[in-house]
Design brief:
Structural class: alpha+beta
Strand order of the largest sheet: 8-7-3-9
Distance between the termini: 70 Å
Oligomer: single chain
Radius of gyration: 24 Å
Largest sheet: 4 strands, antiparallel
Length: 473
Amino acid sequence: MTTSAPTVMLPSRVSVVNVGLPLFESAIRDQGADAIGVEWRIPGGGDDAVVAALARVLGPKSASIDEANVEVVRRLNEGVPMLTGVARAGEVIAGMGDRTILHCGPALDWAGLPDPLQRSIKAAIVAEGWAPDVDAAGQMVVDGHVELGPANEHSTVVPMATAIGPSAPMYVVRDAAGGTEAFSSINQGSGQVPWFGVDSAEAIDRLRFVRDVVGPVLGVAIESMGPVDVLGLASQGVPMGDDVHLRVQATTNLFLRDLLPHLVRSTSPVAGEAATFLSGNHLMFLNIAMAAAKSLVLWAGQVPNSSIVTTMCRNGATYGIRLPGRDDDWFIADSPPVQDALYYPGQGSETSAPDIGDSAVLELIGLGGPAAANSPAVAGFLGGRMSDAIAATRNMQKICFGESGRFRLPILDNVGTPVGVDIRRVVETGITPAVNTGIIHISDGSGQVGAGVAHAPVECFVDALLALDADVD
C-alpha cells in the first residue's frame, strides 16, 4: 500500500519577531506582513573579558552591588538640596588657590583643551585682573602662572565651556541629609559669553557684570528669601514641559516668581539692572539645578561597591565618569559630537565642538534625558514627535537602576523619571546615556551654533565595569 505524503498547509498570515538588524524587520513589513522588532546587541561588544566581567557583576557579585545601588538611589531620591546663598568662589570652594581657574570636564593640560574652553579660561583670567588681554592670559597659563583644575574635583559643576576664577559668584547649595555642599556659577546668559566659548571684550564685560552687579543683588535677595528647595521647584517644572536641562523656562519662572518680592525690596542702586538680566535669561535656573544635583551625587558617591555613575562630564575633548567610592579614578573616553542636533542657519556638524560641560550631572538624578518624554522642546531635537521623546526616556529606563520619587511624567501615567545610570546595563545593552545639551562653535569663538542630544561613549563605561569587577568580591 502506498502512503501519500502529508499535505503541508502554508499559513495565510505570518507574524514575525525579528531580533537584531532592523533591515529584516522593514523588509517583512514592506511585503505586508506583521513584524515586531527586538533591539538587541551582543553584550559587551562580544569582547571575552567584558562578557566574563558582565557575567560576574550580574551574577555572583550582583547581590552586594544591588544592595549598594539601592542605597545610592535612596540618597538620590531622598536628599533635599537647598539653595542657601551666593558667595565668591575663592571664599567657599575648598582647595581653590589665589591663581586657580576651575573648568568643566575631566583634567587636561592646556595644549589638549579645545579652543572654546581655552577661550573661556582666558576670558576668566582677564576678568580676574591677572592679565591685560587674552593673549597675555594664555601665556600666563603656558608659563605655569595659573593653575587649572576640574571643577568636579572641588564639589563644583559648571555648564558648557564655563571657567571660573576666585572672584566668580557661586550658588551655594546644601543637602542636610547627606551633609554635602556643592557649588555652581551664575548663568552668564545668551549672546557673546564665555560659557559659549567666546573671549571677546563683550564676553569679558559680561563676566564682570555678573560678578559685580548680578551676584551681589542676587545674594542679598536669596538671603532675604531664605533657603530654596531647588528640586521642589524642578519637580513642578517637569510636568510643565521642562527637562530642566535643555529647557528650563518653567522652573526659571517659578524661581523668579518667588524671588520677585525680594528683588523689588532691594536697596541696591543696580537692582533694576540685575533684575532685567535675570528675567531675560531663560536658562537662569540651569546652574542652580546643577549644583543641587551635585550635592546629591556627592552623598551618593560615598556608597562603596555601587555600579551607579555619580560623575559624568565633558571638556570638549574628553568624556569622563566616576563611580561611588572611587573619587580618584576617572574613566575617560573621547568626547563625542552632539548626534541629534538642530543648528542655526549656516552652521552644522563641521562647525560644532564635541560635547562639553558638567551639566550631564542632571541626567544622573532623573532630569535632562530621563525627563525627555514630557518635553515638547526636547522632542523637537529628536524628530519632532512626542513618541521620539518618549523613546528617549524609555531608553534611559533600560540603563537606570531605579526611578525618581519626585520627578513625574504625566505623559507616561505619572511614572517617575529613570534615575541611577548603571554601568552594567549600559555595557550589557550598548545603550549609553543621552544628554540634552547646547552646541558651540569648534574654533572661531562665535558662540552657540545649535543644540541637541549627545550620546555618551561606551568605552568609559566598559573601563568602569572592569574596574568594578576587580574591586567587588
